[in-house]
């Protein structure tokens, strides 16, 4: 990182060069607008955050900051600004990995219009809605006492409805696993639970929460009493996927409709009757999944015992893998792998090299050219080889495929097929993910929600799993648990019970209030602020203070971290990324929990204790040392005893984001910047990480917000 003085000199020279480039435009009005935009941008650049390799680097927090100060101008000139930044990137004034300013204001709105407005053919709107309504009427008139042929007709109609007219889409693989016994009634919502085959003790379970219209249809056709009348263990769809898919194609031909356009029309109708944000929630596919134990807590006796037993067994498999290398007595700071990291730093990754590597899928059609093709690519990989680079495992696998071809174990067509699958459904995701575990989740999500036939999905998946097994020694059982385990949030009554247990446990060990309250306060602040474990643990008392009402302020910085690392050689604490440095207010809504935190804070200030969570010696709180992390880690096991689910300290962060997004939806006076205010508090750069990894959307759907 360069010094501030050098930065200012370079920035001045860079600005002059950009202005010369702007002056080349004959449109003098546009020249004035672009120079004005340039001045605004340069006034907001920070030499630590916005300069990389002699180029300007724009991140999303910069745009949010500029937008907040210049809302009127940046709102009216959005497309001009976007094109201007694109030109700066093309001219190499701005780093190519920078975040561009959005063309429109959708990105600054928590309630954007969906693409259905762009793709819908409005001439077909009434006709498609009528076709849908006729199908719904037919489904509602169906009787389970019909004979076999009529039952099959019902299965076909239900398949067509799910594929064409349901807002919530069921992926092709899950359709094969739907059973009557796995229908759950949660208030006015109907939930399908799909159960896949058990592999080495782990059984993937997925929940599908339907919109109100689909829920009403399912309630009509499959009432609660269904299990008494029929063998509920039967699959709802008794034929192969292709059988139903071909009949759906005939249905489309008969009614002169197209699957994509039909889906868009139905989405358009849904958001016209609801909101675009609700549509986004109903359609979301990537987010932490609903745990059956969470569902059972919210709706007691709704989940059958067999499913709960499977979920419990899965929990043990996941717990064993997740904690296999973690000794709770050790000073361990590992959070879950679902958080945002500084990708460039973590991966030491050459994106330009990978872009070149993607051309390897162009296998020559002529056999005589393949030998030279393999020689050229092996030479390329040898030159670029770097063991610190994520491409190393990919190089190894590509060489493995080349050897298979040379030994005539696979032919030219198969080689091309394997390469295409690997890049489209694995490598493109792997190189951009913060961890192999996170990559696996995204790969599964992309495959399962593709329109591929389930048989083809499984074929592709087997190739990808082979890669992870061969190159990363990820066995199927581990992959299954990482990808499919349903994590959980912590509910407020469980937090209160946790605090009660911690106070009871610590009051038996200590006499002073600081030491008795210490762990309870940690849990309360973690729940209401969403801070990561290491961030909260390393706070000094001066980083935290009471404002008024039930509001507190917390400042996340490196000061406490440096002090801890300087005197304790057994642990190393660090912040996840540059966005982790932040300061914000938060509110503790529970009156009793608020009082515990406020009383604790006043005691720390009164006794001039340096750290927010001090260590102790012979029952006396030390002024300049932080408590042992193993005492904090002990909270995990106590929390799981209370919730009976896999909940850890990191679950407080999931709870915080989920509750805040729920509040955001309920809020009447929504502001465009609300979602960015949230991600700033959480310490992320963009909303995708917050929503896809932390917002438990299924819970929000069934909590009647």
UniProtKB/TrEMBL annotation:
Residues 485-705 form the Tyr recombinase domain. InterPro entries: DNA_brk_join_enz, Integrase-like_cat_sf, Integrase_catalytic. Keywords: DNA recombination. PROSITE patterns: TYR_RECOMBINASE. SUPFAM superfamilies: DNA breaking-rejoining enzymes (SSF56349). The keyword Nucleotide-binding does not apply. One of its GO terms (biological process) is DNA integration. GO terms for molecular function: DNA binding. This is Site-specific tyrosine recombinase, phage integrase family (INT_ICEBs1_C_like domain).
């Amino acid at each position: 990182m360069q010094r501030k003085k050098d930065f200012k000199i370079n920035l001045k020279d860079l600005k002059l060069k950009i202005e010369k480039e702007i002056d080349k435009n004959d449109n003098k009005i546009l020249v004035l607008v672009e120079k004005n935009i340039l001045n605004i941008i340069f006034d907001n650049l920070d030499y630590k955050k916005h300069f990389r390799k002699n180029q300007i680097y724009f991140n999303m927090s910069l745009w949010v900051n500029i937008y907040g100060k210049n809302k009127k101008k940046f709102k009216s000139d959005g497309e001009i600004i976007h094109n201007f930044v694109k030109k700066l990137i093309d001219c190499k004034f701005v780093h190519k990995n920078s975040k561009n300013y959005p063309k429109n204001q959708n990105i600054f709105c928590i309630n954007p219009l969906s693409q259905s407005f762009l793709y819908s053919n409005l001439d077909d709107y009434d006709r498609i809605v009528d076709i849908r309504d006729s199908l719904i009427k037919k489904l509602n008139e169906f009787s389970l006492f019909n004979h076999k042929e009529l039952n099959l007709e019902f299965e076909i109609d239900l398949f067509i409805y799910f594929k064409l007219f349901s807002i919530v889409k069921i992926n092709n693989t899950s359709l094969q696993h739907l059973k009557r016994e796995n229908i759950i009634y949660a208030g006015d919502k109907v939930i399908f639970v799909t159960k896949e085959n058990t592999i080495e003790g782990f059984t993937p379970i997925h929940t599908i929460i339907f919109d109100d219209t689909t829920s009403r249809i399912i309630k009509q056709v499959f009432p609660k009493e269904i299990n008494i009348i029929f063998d509920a263990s039967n699959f709802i769809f008794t034929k192969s996927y292709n059988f139903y898919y071909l009949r759906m194609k005939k249905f489309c031909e008969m009614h002169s409709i197209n699957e994509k356009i039909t889906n868009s029309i139905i989405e358009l109708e849904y958001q016209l009757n609801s909101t675009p944000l609700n549509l986004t929630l109903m359609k979301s596919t990537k987010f932490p999944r609903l745990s059956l134990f969470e569902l059972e807590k919210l709706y007691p006796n709704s989940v059958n015992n067999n499913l709960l037993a499977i979920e419990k067994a899965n929990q043990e498999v996941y717990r064993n893998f997740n904690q296999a290398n973690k000794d709770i007595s050790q000073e361990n700071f590992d959070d879950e792998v679902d958080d945002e990291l500084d990708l460039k730093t973590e991966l030491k990754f050459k994106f330009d090299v990978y872009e070149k590597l993607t051309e390897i899928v162009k296998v020559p059609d002529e056999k005589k050219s393949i030998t030279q093709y393999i020689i050229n690519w092996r030479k390329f990989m040898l030159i670029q080889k770097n063991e610190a680079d994520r491409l190393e495992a990919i190089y190894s696998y590509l060489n493995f495929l080349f050897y298979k071809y040379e030994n005539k174990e696979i032919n030219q067509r198969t080689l091309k097929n394997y390469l295409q699958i690997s890049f489209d459904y694995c490598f493109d995701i792997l190189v951009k993910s913060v961890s192999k575990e996170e990559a696996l989740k995204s790969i599964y999500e992309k495959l399962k929600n593709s329109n591929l036939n389930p048989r083809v999905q499984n074929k592709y998946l087997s190739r990808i799993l082979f890669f992870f097994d061969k190159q990363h020694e990820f066995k199927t059982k581990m992959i299954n648990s990482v990808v499919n385990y349903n994590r959980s949030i912590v509910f407020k009554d469980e937090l209160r019970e946790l605090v009660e247990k911690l106070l009871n446990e610590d009051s038996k060990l200590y006499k002073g209030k600081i030491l008795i309250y210490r762990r309870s306060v940690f849990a309360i602040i973690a729940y209401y602020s969403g801070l990561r474990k290491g961030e909260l643990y390393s706070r000094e008392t001066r980083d935290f203070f009471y404002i008024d009402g039930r509001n507190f302020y917390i400042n996340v910085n490196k000061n406490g971290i440096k002090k801890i690392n300087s005197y304790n050689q057994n642990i190393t604490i660090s912040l996840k990324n540059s966005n982790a440095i932040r300061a914000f207010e938060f509110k503790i809504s529970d009156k009793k929990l608020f009082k515990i935190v406020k009383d604790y804070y006043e005691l720390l200030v009164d006794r001039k204790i340096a750290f927010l969570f001090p260590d102790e010696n012979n029952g006396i709180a030390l002024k300049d040392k932080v408590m042992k992390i193993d005492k904090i880690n002990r909270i995990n096991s106590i929390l799981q005893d209370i919730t009976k689910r896999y909940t850890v300290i990191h679950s407080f962060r999931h709870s915080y984001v989920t509750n805040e997004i729920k509040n955001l939806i309920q809020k009447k006076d929504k502001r465009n910047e609300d979602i960015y205010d949230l991600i700033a508090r959480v310490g992320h750069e963009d909303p995708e990480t917050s929503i896809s990894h932390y917002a438990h959307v299924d819970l929000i759907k069934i909590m009647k917000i």
